[in-house]
Amino acid sequence: MRKILLLSLSLMSLPALAAKPAEEEALRVTQFKWLSGCWGFDTADGVYEEQWTTPTGNSMQGLSRRIGEGYTREWDFMRLVTSGGGGFDFTSQQYGGEESRYNSVGVAANRVVFENPDRPFPRKISYEYAAPDKLTMRLEGTSEGRPMGLSFPMKRRTCP
């Protein structure tokens, strides 16, 4: 009887133990809450926009687009998710094509850096938040064998 009681108590505690890692992952992704919302900047060729969901579960979803002459010229589906290795992954799916995955190589309170050494450009993607309303996204890598970098100095905007 005592063994059955101990076994029952052990089995009852399993859901609580299983939920703890998921809760920890969700808590960890909330550190990127500063990224959620709508961002953008005007360029000579049009407008660049990014929109990020609030952290839910272990991920955030994002969408970027560049609008020029009244048309969407470029677009990208993005996701920031906790990885199995204890860090974070950034996935990008430009124009609905094949997904590219970048692993976090630096995480701070208002900055995150992702890298994929197998890609020439972008090889590195970083986001840096400056309160209350500035966000810089930077792409780095090589193009035709030469170093290349692009910065996107965005400001918080009202979401549509």
From TrEMBL:
Superkingdom of the source species: Bacteria
Alphabetized UniProt keyword annotations: Signal
UniProt KW Signal keyword: yes
Coiled coil start-end: none
InterPro entries given in the database record: DUF6265 (IPR046232)
Pfam families in alphabetical order: DUF6265 (PF19780)
Region (Disordered): 141-160
Sequence ranges assigned to domain DUF6265 in this UniProt record: 33-140
Leader sequence residues: 1-18
UniProt KW Signal keyword: yes
Protein name: DUF6265 domain-containing protein
